Write the structure tokens for this entry.
Amino acid sequence: MKVLSTRRITNDRQHNAFTGACWFKGDLFVGYRQADIHHHDKGSRIIVQRSRDAGVTWDTVAVLRGHGDTRDAHLYTDGCRLYCTCYVERVANSVGFSGCAVTEDGDHWTPFEPYEGNYDNYVLWRPTWYRGRHYCAGYYYPHDRFGVHWFESEDGHHWVDVRPINDAPEDMANECYLEILPDGTATMLMRCESGLKKPKLCFSQFPFEAWDMQQLDVRITGPACWTVDGQVYISGRWDPVDIRIHAQEDHAAHTGIFRVIDGECFLICVLPSGPHPDNSYMGVARRQDNSHRFSLSFYSNAIANEDPLIDQWTKPDIYVADVLFGADFIIAAEGTKFAFEMYRGGGAPYGPSKAAHEALIAMASRELEGTGVTANVLVPGGMSNTNMIPGDAQYDRANMVRADVMQKPVVWLG
């Protein structure tokens, strides 16, 4: 795994949270909830932003709002249309509805409308599309009881409750992140509120009538999952504090990424987040031009607002990480010292030494894979505008990365 960049895309004194992400017709879209507080805000809304340059700059293309606390943005596509889904909670009685808005070009959106069908008291959380049909693992809400059911739709608007997946009261199952690969393999990470909040990793094959489930030994909520070359990765709001001293310590949580091997979870990365637990809820967008490269959206309060009067821990922002998975990440990692400096004339010994450093860390990460120890290298994410670039070089400095982008992540690592 290699994190090419992590960018904060909001800084507006709002509580920005609960993200979704999707690549659609060559552009990256990210949706999130914007409000004043974490929960029960009748003024909340879903913001959809678009980036035409792979996550560097953003513009707002849609603002969606229901009559209640509008939350849990999710984006997915059927190839022709982009769907933005969310849940609207009635603040007065905790009974709400799921719904969506749709666009065919990213600019013109239908009004947000509630779903139709027999999904009463179920939240249709993060649907997806496969071979002409829409699928979703919906969870029961409000939490006077728990359960997850399988829902299907022919048009993405009218939904049918097909069958239960997990109604076991001891699991207290709710939020489920669902991925369906082109070969019909479905992978799902199911949040479980019982006990230590350890999720279940679930597998099925088209037509998704039976599911194999295994409980993982890691404490995660706000689940997300994806598959690369047959390897399953999971993420969410990870609570690292050992349960034996949990009552004696402040509640801490981070947005962690784990690789699952034979049912065992190995931590491979912690994205900028925590220790305050208001973070995570990741959107997973696989690049259309590289199946090993992902845009991962999440929310975090890792960086304080520029205004010192704004509470860092209650006003989180939205971040997007550009991440590569798999053995070919060195070749594919455009924008690193390897790509820009290795062969440029006049760059020795600076360029080759940096390239060697990246190669060393890459090899170390492979050697340490599966041990729980990670190896990473921090790079600017592209050619940086410093004096190391000769004045007569044929590069546009306006398109280079500012040198000070390294300051905040270096401080965070320190």
